[in-house]
């Protein structure tokens, strides 16, 4: 019977320094303590969330540019109608809630 040997080389984390307001450090420390984590953990989570959101944003831009190249455009009047419809939806009262007379 053959056994495969798998090896994983873990790249050691890099140290990055940056300036941050003392109040934010204090807030990080409070959160870290409440979550039973260290400051580094929270910062890594924050950076990952930021990178994820930026990747999503860039993908949306690329999707829009591709649509534009394919002629899939919306004119400014249609954009205005869409925005107006969204505004009306937000302003409309909930249908499930009845107002008393």
Describe the secondary structure blueprint for this structure.
Elements: H1 22-35, H2 39-69, H3 76-91
Helix pairs in contact: 1-2
**Helical fraction:** 55-70%
* Mean pLDDT metric: 87
Low-confidence parts, pLDDT < 50 over ≥5 residues? none
Number of strands: 0
Proportion in β-strands:
under 5%
The assigned structural class equals mainly alpha
Treating each run of at least 4 consecutive H or I residues as one helix, how many helices?
A: 3
Give the overall silhouette. Answer: extended
- Main sheet attributes: strand count, strand direction, barrel closure: none
State the end-to-end CA separation. 82 Å
Rg calculated over all Cα atoms:
25 Å
Write the H/E string, N to C: HHH
Summarize this structure briefly.
This protein is mostly helical and 101 residues long. It has a domain of 67 residues. Helices cover 60% and strands 0% of the residues.
Structure explained in plain terms:
The protein has 101 residues and is mainly alpha-helical. It has a domain at 22-88. It has three helices and no strands. It has helices at 22-35, 39-69, 76-91. The longest helix is centred in the middle third of the chain and has 31 residues, at 39-69. The chain is extended. It starts with 21 loop residues before the first helix and ends in a 10-residue tail after the last helix. 0% of the residues are buried.
């Amino acid at each position: 019977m053959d056994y495969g040997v798998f090896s994983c080389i873990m790249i050691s984390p890099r140290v990055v320094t940056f300036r941050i307001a003392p109040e934010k450090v204090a807030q990080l420390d409070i959160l870290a303590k409440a979550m039973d984590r260290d400051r580094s953990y929270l910062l890594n989570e924050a950076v990952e969330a930021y990178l994820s959101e930026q990747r999503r944003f860039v993908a949306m831009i690329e999707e829009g540019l591709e649509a534009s190249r394919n002629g899939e455009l919306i004119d400014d009047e249609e954009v205005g109608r869409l925005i107006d419809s969204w505004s009306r939806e937000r302003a409309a009262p909930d249908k499930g809630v009845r107002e008393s007379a």
